Amino acid sequence: MIQIKDVTYRHIAKMLASALPVEGELFTLQVEQYLTTIKAMSNQNKIALKMAYMFSRKVPCQEREDLFQDIALAIFKSKTKEEKLAYTIARCDWKNWWAKYKVCQHYSLDTVIEDEEGDPRTLAEMLVGETEFEFKMDGKIDAQRIWDKLPAHVQPIILERLIGKGLNSSKRNILNRWLNKEGYKLLLA
Questions:
Q1: DSSP symbols for 35-63
Q2: Which pLDDT value is given to residue 86?
Q3: Cβ(11)–Cβ(3) under 8 Å?
């Protein structure tokens, strides 16, 4: 288990540099740049980075960067200069994170689950289906809002066009006049 005394600014600099697409000498150079920047920070900020680093190492790899940022931000916002208080803030945020993490079920998109009919489907397929449904519902809501904005004398003409009927010249003129005069309002609906 990592201790406060074991955390060095170089550890933090390496972690920050590892998020960049650099290797070899460029990585070493980036670590040195981060190290210089960290050393130039106020003691308050250094404490926040140390605590964030220490507690972010205690979570799964894919979650570390996010938790590091969350904890560092919480300590920055508290503006504490005391290491013990920063430790307490970091520990509480870490415990809250774990409580939420344990409650949530973490699935990969390849996880097989049952759909409404009991058929096995991947989570990715289910999400795509849900997204399609949301798009359809959004489209229906948008269409209804536009339909409601149409004047009563234009709705029957548009309905005839939607079902495939041809318009006589009188109805075509009414529709064209309305479109030229107020059709732009549909864009604002």
A1: HHHHHHS-HHHHHHHHHHHHHHTTS-GGG
A2: 92
A3: no
CA distances from 56 to 28, 64, 75, 91, 112 (A): 22, 5, 13, 10, 30
The answer to whether residues 158 and 150 touch, using CB atoms and an 8 Å cutoff, is yes
pLDDT at residue 186, rounded to an integer: 75
Phi first, then psi, for residue 119 (nearest 5°) are -85, 140
pTM above 0.90, yes or no: no
Q: Between vectors from CA 33 to CA 30 and to CA 39, what angle results, nearest 5°?
A: 140
Task: Output the CA torsion sign for 38, 43, 44, 47.
Answer: positive
Size (the chain), residues: 189
pLDDT of 73-95, one tens digit each?
999 999 998 999 999 999 999 99
